[in-house]
Structure formats: structure tokens, C-alpha cells
Design a protein that fits this description.
Rossmann fold, globular, seven-stranded parallel beta sheet, alpha/beta, 49% helix, six-stranded parallel beta sheet
Length: 725
């Protein structure tokens, strides 16, 4: 045990072997030693744990540390014990312990051996634990991951709201609350809920200059991720996915492609999760594919990349998860894949929740959209979100700074926007302001009689995306403010009022458009850009083959398949089968002319092909494929086929589309005969045989609601199966 007469610096060296503190660690520790309530906001990797561990070792009594995850507690306890000769110095008390183990923990505390006791908030509510803790000397309460207290935090847990009441039942001692991510609103919420009068607040900078931030459009994500990891071979990384199913699929795909990876999610049992976490920490595997359950408090300093397969629900989540890269100050690459469809999916998850929770969730999602779509410096945008201003406009270490979009003169547009905010009395959110300017008759514009306002339609030469870009950049550049209490009402700042009185020239940048095929560069270079010259040659060849076969061109190979050929340059039939939407059947039937053309083109233009042209598909996809083909042959009902594999009907249709697009026949006439009469089937078949595209929206528009989307999709599957295969 540490001699209490030592200074914090001497104690640091004696117990942890370090000679200096990081940032404000020393001041925070001194505050706790003096018995002050203390609130710490410190980014991941800043050394939060030490802020309560060292004073716990120096003060009399046991420090009670509230922690949200069992895996996190174990990790922290193991770390503390590794510095001490006494195993009893740190313990956790939670549901994973047997009665005998829990009794041993209590005895070590009574004997005065235990300086740190980690507990889950649920364990604190148990009567026997409250009675026990009330009888022992407690040095202070520490709340790790304190953002869990706030409904505005990214990981809100209702049981955290009760902590102050429980602390008071045990005894009134100093409290230290710590978090890696907290906006001003979350900070206020934490301090108010914990009733920490006169708390000393320590806020470290949120800037992590060593982290590179990039957002990529979400297309062919698996191939993109495999290519990225192979470029960073042998380095540790984390991939975050929103669903457990996607975690399992991604981990399997990586392993099939020679990358050592393990899954981690809440659906696995605790022992398996712990094994996978340990293997990652011990560098037995390079990559962990995880839901957000992974990473809290994981002290691995050399994570070199964090990839978000799906955009997170909030910028707090994003910041905390990306913060697990480069904790040693070395390189950390943070790459996220973004599609607005994911945001719409997350918005659907909010339905059915209390209105206030829905409003908060939507506001957090819109902030995430703003970050993903912005073309301004990502670091500047993030820091502004957390209430910190960055010097200058560029950081030189994000995709937007290294591959900048065009600036434009925003003086007039900003003036119009500010007028619209003023006219609507600063009582509306961003969407209303943009709808007002474009003259869009949204429900809110109708409710508040927006069409009678002078600003209505004044900016109709631009679309909502443009006005949203001006608004976001107006916020970050200090012309506008956003009121969190009212779920995001837009107001005008003092600087904005000055600008309205006497405008000066203002430049903003065009936003990135993730609805197009634009692919932003990584580190300033074009990434995965299609070879336009080859694309034209492949389209011409497809046209020739289609004419010969008397088929629509999309039946031969679809555009995404041709696009991938221009990136990966397959020169053999085997390589062609690895292109999305091209199976062995289709490759054999139509492929030779295409690979011959590509091989000649590669040779003539001296093109160096990527090493990992072959991205292997995962086994469970092929097991689904076999299951579907066999059971369609047996004329099983489609809903029964889907249920047997735990698929939704939409998932099943997607699988069937992959099967027929790859060149395999599916005889689903038996199912269609029950849904549609023969005249209807003939009508849809005639449409697809004459259409230039197999696009669903175009088909829906053509039939104007006569058939459901499911019926059209099934008929498209039948058409491709019978005509193309």
C-alpha cells in the first residue's frame, strides 16, 4: 500500500512507475485528496482511470467505483492488481460472482485490504449491499462513464439516474464523475442529477491530432474494408457494426480472406466475450468486429484503425469509439461508411418510444448526418460540437482537408438564411428554415403558415441540401446557435446580428453529396474511382452481346458489376466470379468476351492490378443459397424458407436476387401462380423484357400501384431466372 505522506507525484512513481502526469491529472487527483466533488471530462486515452485509482490508493477507506460493464470492471481490476503484490487491493462486486466469491470480497474490504471496489449500478440497489457499504469506511464514490446518467448522453441508462439517492442512503462522501464525451448539455445534466455542489470541473481538450477522420459512401463495404485492412496488414483494428448479425458476417468474411478476426457482441456469453477480448489484447488476432458493447475502458494503446461499417447513433458514440485508435499518440485511422438509408433505419427504431426520447434521438441523428455530409474540416466540426473551437479552418488530417471541396461565396445565402430565422422568431429547427426558403409545403410550414412569410420560397433556386449546408456552416462559424433544450431550435448569435446589420464577405464550401457516385479521396488521392474509358468499352461490349441474345443489356451484367470490373480488372473466368452479381453460371455464359477485353486493356495500358483482386464471399451466404435453391426446387412456401434461416421476407428476396443475378435459375412459378393471374404475370414480364433498366422505382412508377413492390421483385427474379440464366 502507498504511504499516505507521499505527494501525488511520488505516489505515481511508487505504484505505477511513471514520473510525470498527463494533462490535468495531478490537479484532479489533488482535488479528490482534498475531499472535493470533482467532474472530469477527458477524451479516451487521456488517462481518466488514474484520476481515481491513485487517490483511492492514497486515502483511507475503500473507493466505490460505479462501472457499466462487467468486462470493463474485470479489465480494470486486473490492471490494478498487476501493479500490486496484494490481490485484494481491487475487487469487483457483481452478478458474475458466486456466493463464496462475493463473501471473500466483503472480507477483504472489512480487513482493510481493498482500496478500489468496482460495482454495477444494479448491484448498488441491492439492500444487502447498501447495508454492507454503510458500515465500511468509504473514501469517495467514482462514477465512470458518467454520460450514462444523461438522457442526452449516447449510452443513457435509467439506473444511473438513481445513483445520488443510493449514495445518500449509504453515506455522504465526495463524488468524482468521469466521462470521455460530454456536450455542454450532458455536462449540466450530470452535475444537476448527481447534486454535486461546488464541484471542480476539469475539461481536457477533445482534439486528438494524431487521428485521421474519413467518411466514405456505403457501396461494396466488405471489399472496401478488406482492401483497407490488407493495406494495413498486421496492425490492430476495431470494426463497429450496429447489428449482431452483421458482426458475425463481417468477422467470417475477414477470416475467409486471410485476416484474423473475432466477433464481439452482447448475444455471446460472457466467457466467450472475455476470451475474444483477451485474444485481441494479447495480439492473437488483428481485428475485433463488434457492436458498441466492445471497447469501454479497453486499454490497448496501439489500435491503428477504427472502422464504422454503420454510422453511429450520435457524435458522442462516434467520438468515443474512434477515440480507441492511436491512444499511444501514434497513427490512428478512423474510417466510417455512410448512407442516409442507415439514418432512416435508425429513425424507425425510435418509433414507439416516448416523444421526448424520440426528439432527443432524432436531434442526435441529425448532428451525425451533419458530420457525415459536411465538407468542412471534420476535426473543426467535431470540436465545435463538444464546445471547443479549433484555431484555423483546416487540420490537414481528415479527408475534407486533404481532398477539399470547392468554396463558394455564401454572403447572400447567409443573409437570406438569417432573415428567415429572424422572421420565424428563432422558434424553429433547421428543417423548417430550409423548407421555408425552398418554398416546400411541409406539414410544419403549413401549421405555422410559412407560405405567408416574406422568406417563403426566397431561396427556391437552391434545394434543401444547399440550405442545410449553409445552416451547418453558419452554426460552426458562429453566426447561428442551436438550443438543445428545445430539441434544436435555431437562433441568431451576436455575430449573426452584426452580419445582418452590415454584411461582410463570407465563404463556405460545397457539401459532399452521398446520393451520387462521388467517392471522396483517402489521403488526398482518388479512391476506387472507376476507369471511365474501360467502363465505356464494357458497356459497348454488353450492348453487342445483348443485341445478339435479344435481351436487355442489364440482363447480361448489371452496372454495379461492370463498375467493379473497372476497379478490380478481372482477367480470368475464376476472377470474374468474385465480382458482385457474377456467379459461375453467368461467368461461363457471358464472361469470356469481357475478361478477354479487360486482359487486353490491362496489357495495353500497363495497369498494375491490386494484389487482392479476389475477395471471397462468406460460407453462410452459400449455405443460405443452397438452402433456398433446394427448397424452391421442392416448392416450399417462401415464408417457410425464410423462417428456417431466420430471414425476413426482404432478406430472402435479396438473397434470391443475388442468386439469379449470379447466373443460377430459381423456378418460383409455383409461388407466383398463387399471387398473380397469368395475364398480370405476362404484363410484368413484357415490361422487363422491353425496359432499359430493372430499377424498382421505375417499375413501380410504370404500374402506378397496380402491383406491390414484393410482387414486382418476385416477377423480376422470375424474369432474370428464365431469360438471363
Amino acid at each position: 500500500m502507498i504511504n499516505v505522506e507521499l505527494t501525488p507525484r511520488e505516489a505515481l512513481e511508487q505504484f505505477f512507475g511513471f514520473s510525470t502526469f498527463k494533462g490535468e491529472q495531478e490537479a484532479i487527483i489533488q482535488s479528490i485528496l482534498e475531499g472535493q466533488n470533482t467532474f472530469v471530462i477527458m477524451p479516451t486515452g487521456g488517462g481518466k482511470s488514474l484520476c481515481y485509482q491513485l487517490p483511492a490508493l492514497m486515502r483511507d477507506g475503500t473507493a466505490i467505483v460505479v462501472s457499466p460493464l462487467i468486462a470493463l470492471m474485470k479489465n480494470q481490476v486486473d490492471a490494478i492488481r498487476s501493479f500490486s503484490n496484494d490481490e485484494g487491493v481491487a475487487h469487483f462486486l457483481n452478478s458474475s460472482l458466486s456466493r463464496n466469491e462475493a463473501q471473500r470480497v466483503r472480507q477483504d474490504i472489512l480487513d482493510g485490504r481493498t482500496k478500489l471496489l468496482y460495482v454495477a449500478p444494479e448491484s448498488l440497489t441491492k439492500k444487502e449491499n447498501i447495508e454492507f457499504l454503510a458500515e465500511i469506511p468509504i473514501s469517495f464514490f467514482a462514477i465512470d462513464e458518467a454520460h450514462c446518467i444523461s438522457e442526452w448522453g449516447h449510452d443513457f441508462r435509467p439506473e444511473y439516474r438513481r445513483l445520488r439517492t443510493i449514495f445518500d442512503e449509504i453515506k455522504r462522501v465526495p463524488v468524482i464523475a468521469l466521462t470521455a464525451t460530454a456536450t455542454q448539455k450532458v455536462q449540466e445534466d450530470i452535475l444537476k442529477n448527481l447534486d454535486m455542489p461546488g464541484a471542480r470541473v476539469y475539461k481536457a481538450s477533445f482534439n486528438r491530432p494524431n487521428l485521421y477522420y474519413e467518411v466514405r459512401p456505403k457501396r461494396d463495404v466488405g471489399t472496401d474494408i478488406i482492401r483497407f485492412i490488407k493495406q494495413h496488414s498486421g496492425r490492430s483494428g476495431i470494426i463497429y457494426c450496429l447489428s449482431r448479425k452483421k458482426v458475425e458476417e463481417m468477422a467470417e468474411m475477414l477470416n475467409v480472406n486471410g485476416i484474423t478476426a473475432l466477433p464481439y457482441h452482447a448475444g455471446m456469453d460472457a466467457a466467450q466475450r472475455a476470451r475474444h477480448q483477451d485474444k485481441f489484447l494479447m495480439e492473437e488476432v488483428d481485428v475485433i468486429v463488434a457492436t458498441i458493447a466492445f471497447g469501454m475502458g479497453i486499454d490497448k494503446p496501439d489500435v491503428r484503425f477504427v472502422i464504422h461499417h454503420d454510422i453511429p447513433k450520435s457524435l458522442e458514440s462516434y467520438y468515443q469509439e474512434t477515440g480507441r485508435a492511436g491512444r499511444d499518440g501514434g497513427e490512428g485511422k478512423c474510417v466510417s461508411f455512410y448512407s442516409y438509408k442507415d439514418i432512416e433505419k435508425l429513425e424507425k427504431f425510435l418509433q414507439g418510444k416516448p416523444v421526448a426520447e424520440q426528439e432527443i434521438g432524432k436531434q442526435l441523428l441529425q448532428d451525425t448526418v451533419g458530420y457525415a455530409e459536411t465538407s468542412m474540416c471534420r476535426r473543426k466540426y467535431l470540436l465545435h460540437y463538444f464546445g471547443e473551437e479549433m484555431d484555423g479552418d483546416t487540420c490537414g488530417n481528415c479527408d475534407n482537408c486533404l481532398d477539399p471541396k470547392k468554396p463558394f461565396d455564401a454572403t447572400d445565402a447567409l443573409g437570406l438564411l438569417l432573415e428567415a430565422v429572424a422572421e420565424s422568431k428563432e422558434r424553429h429547427r433547421a428543417k423548417f428554415i430550409c423548407d421555408l426558403l425552398t418554398g416546400t409545403q411541409s406539414s410544419e410550414v403549413k401549421t405555422y403558415k410559412g407560405s405567408g412569410m416574406a422568406s417563403y420560397g426566397k431561396g427556391s433556386e437552391h434545394d434543401n441540401r444547399f440550405w442545410m449546408a449553409v445552416l451547418r456552416q453558419g452554426l460552426v462559424n458562429g453566426f447561428l446557435s442551436k438550443d438543445i433544450e428545445s430539441y434544436g431550435n435555431i437562433g441568431i448569435t451576436e455575430q449573426g446580428r452584426k452580419f445582418m446589420k452590415k454584411p461582410w464577405k463570407v465563404s463556405f464550401t460545397e457539401e459532399r453529396d452521398f446520393t451520387t457516385d462521388e467517392v471522396p479521396g483517402a489521403n488526398g488521392s482518388a479512391r476506387g474511382t472507376a476507369d471511365e474509358k474501360l467502363m465505356k468499352m464494357l458497356r459497348d461490349l454488353r450492348q453487342q452481346v445483348a443485341r445478339k441474345q435479344n435481351l436487355p443489356p442489364y440482363v447480361i451484367f448489371q452496372d454495379p458489376s461492370l463498375d467493379e470490373m473497372t476497379i478490380r480488372y478481372p482477367v480470368t473466368i475464376e476472377e470474374l466470379t468474385q465480382i458482385t452479381g457474377v456467379g459461375p453460371g453467368k461467368a461461363q455464359k457471358y464472361g469470356k468476351a469481357f475478361v478477354d477485353l479487360i486482359a487486353n486493356y490491362v496489357e495495353e495500358n500497363e495497369i498494375e492490378r491490386a494484389e487482392e483482386v479476389t475477395v471471397r464471399s462468406i460460407v453462410n451466404k452459400s449455405s443460405n443459397k443452397v438452402h433456398i435453391i433446394q427448397n424452391v426446387d421442392r416448392k416450399m412456401p417462401l415464408d417457410a424458407i425464410a423462417r428456417a434461416k431466420g430471414l425476413s421476407m426482404d432478406d430472402l428476396l435479396q438473397e434470391m436476387e443475388h442468386i439469379v443475378n449470379s447466373g443460377t435459375r430459381l423456378n418460383i412459378g409455383y409461388h407466383l401462380d398463387e399471387m398473380l393471374d397469368s395475364d398480370s404475370q405476362d404484363e410484368i414480364m413484357d415490361y422487363f423484357s422491353e425496359a432499359e433498366t430493372d430499377d424498382l422505382e421505375a417499375a413501380n412508377a410504370e404500374f402506378d400501384g397496380d402491383y406491390s413492390e414484393e410482387e414486382i421483385r418476385l416477377m423480376r427474379i422470375r424474369f432474370l431466372s428464365e431469360v438471363a440464366n
